[in-house]
Write a structure and sequence with these properties.
The chain has 1 helix and 2 strands; from the N terminus they run αββ. It has 92 residues and is mainly alpha-helical. The chain has a domain of 42 residues. The chain has a two-stranded antiparallel sheet. β1 and β2 form a beta hairpin.
């Protein structure tokens, strides 16, 4: 009875897939964070922020009810003495 040699064993290195997995995870997280920031910025820019002057901060104390925007002035009477309300609703 002849003994056979055992079959050759091949070295198969383990794959180090953790780096691509971590990089992919980081990219996904960054994309989600950017999407949320853009959504909030767009929502804030397009949402109605005031319905009366009481809703506005002191830096833009006049509410233009038709647009829902808080503005620095609606007429020159809203500006300090000697200043006028410009077409972009700022005192100058």
């Amino acid at each position: 009875m002849a003994f056979r040699d055992p079959p050759p064993q091949y070295y198969v290195p383990e794959s180090n897939n953790t780096i691509p997995t971590v990089a992919f995870f980081i990219v996904v997280v960054i994309v989600i964070v950017v999407a949320v920031i853009l959504y909030v910025a767009i929502k804030k820019a397009t949402s109605t922020s005031c319905t009366s002057n009481l809703d506005c901060p002191s830096s833009a104390k006049k509410c233009q009810i038709s647009s829902g925007l808080c503005l620095q002035c609606l007429t020159s009477a809203d500006c300090s003495k000697g200043l006028y309300c410009s077409t972009n609703n700022t005192c100058g």
